[in-house]
Amino acid sequence: MAARRRTSFKLGVTGLGERQEIAPGLFINTFYRGCTPGFVVTDEGLILIDTPLIPKQAKDWREQIEAEAPGLPILYVFNTDHHRGHALGNQYFLPTTVIAHERAFKEMSGYTENFKERVYNSFKREPEIQEQLTNIEIILPDVTFTDCARLKYGGREIQLIYAGGHTPATSIAWLPEEKIAFVGDILWVDQHPYMAQADSLEWIEALRRIRTLGAERLVPGHGPVCRPDDTHRVEKYILFKRKRVRDYYRAGKTKNEAKSGLVGEMLEWFPVPLERKAKIESQIKSGINRVYREIQREEELAGAESVNGALQPPSNGAPVLHEPQAEANLIPTPVAVEANQ
Ligand SMILES: [Zn+2]
């Protein structure tokens, strides 16, 4: 893992770029900010996966879609989660039917004027983007599912499968015929995963399930196409974070002590462009915050169970937990900072 390949996309871009056909009739675009959107051409119409956040890019994407499949309707827009980078561009693909997990519907139903203002304000350093974000319209899912849904149109089959982990809404689009899965923000390659709404155990489970799909290629929520093997790094990252947070918890450290104590260790796992360092640090801390609460619950539960005799404590006195294997032997592999990313 010492020589990490360079990523072929740039974060923070405001420009446009051409779509890439990753399989016949299956396209993605890695040039947009906020997500890697995709679309699938069927004989009956198009199925989109995620929508770009920045209006100029969303409109560009729609133009590219219409150029590729003139006259075909957009049957569905599937949002892999409810985050701004994946679902806020829905308004640019109407008329269509938006489909997402039931929890995404609930989260997006809570997007008030205040939320729109926060999105707007988050671009205060980029006025050319900010001025595009004055008319945000939240387009909620019309159709929701909780476990899975199957779309069969024009000779294509797309399975929408709940995965969780990253958020309680995160779902993937699996095309069994093409052996390609759009895995949303479960997979991060060369980037720190966003864990502020995470369930870390569920996330590890989701990564393992993705590896058993039989996929040949994965489209992550951000960045270029990758392989199922690319899921290992983020899994190790999460396992490492869980282990270190548990160390802190058991040493009697508070959540804030864990946050400030661990942020440096976590930063080493993925490249950190200088201009985004502060933001990434704050995201890492919100992830540690989340994991700390999880570990706290696990430890309290294990403590209560062992008091009740439900668990046999191991010889070292530590509670028995449903901890995924391999948490113990993790050493981060520092990576070079790529300032231009
Ligand atoms: Zn997300």
UniProtKB/TrEMBL annotation:
InterPro entries: Metallo-B-lactamas (IPR001279), NDM-1-like (IPR050855), RibonucZ/Hydroxyglut_hydro (IPR036866). It comes from the Bacteria. Keywords: Hydrolase. Residues 303-341 are annotated as: Disordered. GO terms for molecular function: hydrolase activity. Residues 34-222 form the Metallo-beta-lactamase domain. The keyword Hydrolase applies. SUPFAM superfamilies: Metallo-hydrolase/oxidoreductase (SSF56281). PANTHER family: ACYL-COENZYME A THIOESTERASE MBLAC2, METALLO-BETA-LACTAMASE DOMAIN-CONTAINING. This is MBL fold metallo-hydrolase. It comes from Caldilineaceae bacterium SB0661_bin_32. The lineage of its organism: Bacteria, Bacillati, Chloroflexota, Caldilineae, Caldilineales.
